[in-house]
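User: Please run a holo structure prediction.
Assistant: Happy to. Please share the sequence and the ligand.
User: Here you go; the ligand is pyridoxal-5'-phosphate.
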Amino acid sequence: MTVYDRLGVRRVINAEATLTKLGGSRMSSEVLAAMADAARSFVALDELQRSVGARLAELTRNEAAYVSCGAAAGIALAVAACMAEDDPAAIRQLPDTTGLKNEVIVHRTQRNGYDHAVRQTGATLVEIGMSTGTQAWELEAAIGPRTAAIIWFQFVGTGHCDLPLATVLKIAAARNIPVLVDAAAQLPPVENLWRYTEAGAALAIFSGGKDLCGPQSSGLVVGQKRLIDWMRVNGNPNPSLGRSMKVGKEEMVGLLVAVERYLAMDHQARAERDERVVASWIAAMSQLPGLRLERSFPNEAGQPLPRLKCTIAPKVAGIDRDTLVARLWDSDPRIAVGRGGDDAILLNPMTLSDDDTGLVLQALVAVLSEARRKRRAS
Ligand SMILES: *Cc1c(COP(=O)(O)O)cnc(C)c1O
């Protein structure tokens, strides 16, 4: 009996994505063992953060690294560091930013729910560009004496009418403004752990609880030592803005082991496995009427991994997309799938164990076959 059975909470088979609302990802036994090990004794938290950070920096080919309690918290702490630096009075004052550099520049086209992490620090977002395009002079003109940082969100909205990242980095470097890259879901490819900072980003911020399969409430911030040092003094356990975003010893150690594991992983073999899963789903469902089956690539966050896109013709299949999604979610265990457009579902192998890939297929075929039987009977 699992802890979820005891609580009467249904397990979810996650064929959607590394979504926080579904629990993000699953930790390996090595990561869990390291966390259990860490939980058994006391430690000087700051010493552990420094030691884990040094190891993470080396592993990710960066000057410095820091474990935050999630990528969103990493963004907030990074912004706090850019505003308050290591000035004790400024650190104490936040989120009141009176007298501090407190503007963070963002592309209008990159505004999204995670920019709350910037604003919670007291910083003000200064938007550049329009939904039809962004010009380099707009960034130049937005930079002023109150500019603390530029935030770049690398996500599904990036690349539509924003400046190229290289242009942003070049303009920022000339004016000595740090560029913070939110790359929370930008793994794989594993090279992204150093690619953004090598290109000139001051910091790159990754979620520890997505494809890294580290602790859910962990994030990895890599980049310039000076900024990471400022994040430390703005972070837990110091009385500061970051105190409410505590990272435990277990998360620090767990994330380190997860990153070690991720770097040692055969990413080619992993991608090939996901391709095989998608191809096998397509083959297994090809006889079902009313479906258009295709490989969709890259995935929703732009990661180079395939998904199955299954477009449903309700009149032929006997069920519409939303009813199908609801049936799968209401099953036990629950099955979560992605949605595409008005009439498609997307199945993602990256969050599925080998057993689960079969269970998802079985459940999908069962719901579709029943819908078809009912339709014929009526
Ligand atoms: C997931 C995500 C985050 C938040 O990451 P957490 O580790 O859950 O805090 C931030 N930004 C983007 C673009 C994301 O995809």
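Residues 371 and 377 are 10 Å apart (CA to CA).
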